[in-house]
Amino acid sequence: MTHGIDSPALRKRHRALAAWCFALVVAMVGAAYAAVPLYRLFCQVTGFDGTPRIATSAPSVVLDKTVAVRFDGNVAPGLPWRFEPVQNTVEARIGESMLVFYRATNTSDRAVKGTATFNVFPEVAAVYFNKVQCFCFTEQVLEPGQSIEFPVSFFVDPEIVNDKDARKVTHITLSYTFHAVPSPGEGSVAAKAGDKSG
């Protein structure tokens, strides 16, 4: 005996399928919102993709071995800032807490907001490069012509000497890039200006 097109059993199966589809959509939307912070956390914990780890304090052991740490500063298109390290390179003893500075200057005639992302090269050393203090991922506002120095406190984990690949590293580069952060309403103001001129 076959069920009709509009039979109760068929309707029940359709409702169950619709419920599963709805649950899948909700799960996918939730995963999309969680993806960025989870990926950032994963990178900070593992050093994946050249992301240094975040530490609360430097280790108690400082080795005689040193590594040259180079600092690089970049500005993404659309941000009217000048951004560079105050000191281009330091020779850091492994395990030693180091403090360096980057300087940002707003070269425009208006207040501008920016935020920085970072990477460490070579990637094999990123898991051993620990930052204790950093200005990354924090929105910074510079007034017209204003200059600010941002501190970076870091150390290279002594465990690097036990890694057969990373222990060969003699130079590490810490690179930051500042990006513009649009102010609320900036897009609508630009759109209104465009409408008036049209």
Task: Tag the structure with descriptive keywords.
alpha+beta; Ctag/Cox11 (Pfam 04442); 2 domains; 5-stranded mixed sheet; 3 helices; 10 strands
**Briefly, what CATH class of the largest domain?**
Mainly Beta
Written as H for each helix and E for each strand, in order along the chain, the element string is HEEEEEEHEEEEH
Whole-number average pLDDT? 81
**Main β sheet profile:** 5 strands, mixed
List low-pLDDT spans: 32-50, 187-198
Please provide a brief summary of the model:
With 198 residues, this protein is an alpha+beta fold. The protein is 28% helix and 35% strand.
Describe this structure in words.
It is a single chain. This protein has helices at 8-46, 123-126, 186-197; strands at 53-54, 66-75, 81-85, 89-93, 98-106, 112-121, 129-133, 140-142, 147-156, 171-180. The protein has 198 residues and is an alpha+beta fold. The chain has two domains: 8-46; 50-180, Ctag/Cox11 (Pfam 04442), CATH 2.60.370. The longest helix is centred in the first third of the chain and has 39 residues, at 8-46. Mean pLDDT is 81; it is low at 32-50 and 187-198.
